[in-house]
Design brief:
Elements (H helix, E strand, L loop, with lengths): L1 E7 L2 E11 L2 E6 L2 E6 L24 E2 L10 E4 L4 E6 L6 E2 L4 E7 L2 E6 L4 E6 L6 E2 L4 E5 L1
Parallel strand pairs: 5-10
Antiparallel strand pairs: 1-2, 2-3, 3-4, 6-13, 7-9, 7-12, 8-11, 9-10, 11-13
Length: 142
Amino acid sequence: MKNFTFKINENNYGVKIVSHENSTIELEVNGTSYSVKMKEEVKTIKTPTLVRKPASAVVEPLKVSNPNSGSSGSKIVAPIPGVVLSINAKVGDRIKENDILLVLEAMKMENSIASEKAGIVSAIHVKVGQQVLQSDIMIELE
């Protein structure tokens, strides 16, 4: 298993651990075999098991609040950095409140970006596959 060299009182000892079961260790010191029983059992580290609750069937779309929105128009900005997976609107489309405008992938999760209010799409500033940073303007509504 493992080899060690110990220096005790100016003498070198070659120690080879042959096996380890429960509290008994079989080892060789300079070629002589020994069986050593530990007073306390050596604790083994267990790997934690990740337990997740099942995903709910209904996924709420992510609503984006717009600090930059004025009375004349609304801007849909990226709530988190990610990659645009799909765009569900075109310039000129009439959008209702809570319509899903695009899907943004962030940290291997798909986030549906919904409109906060009704309007008409006046500009789309992103393409499918494009990376966006947080607060980047993606879509403008009138």
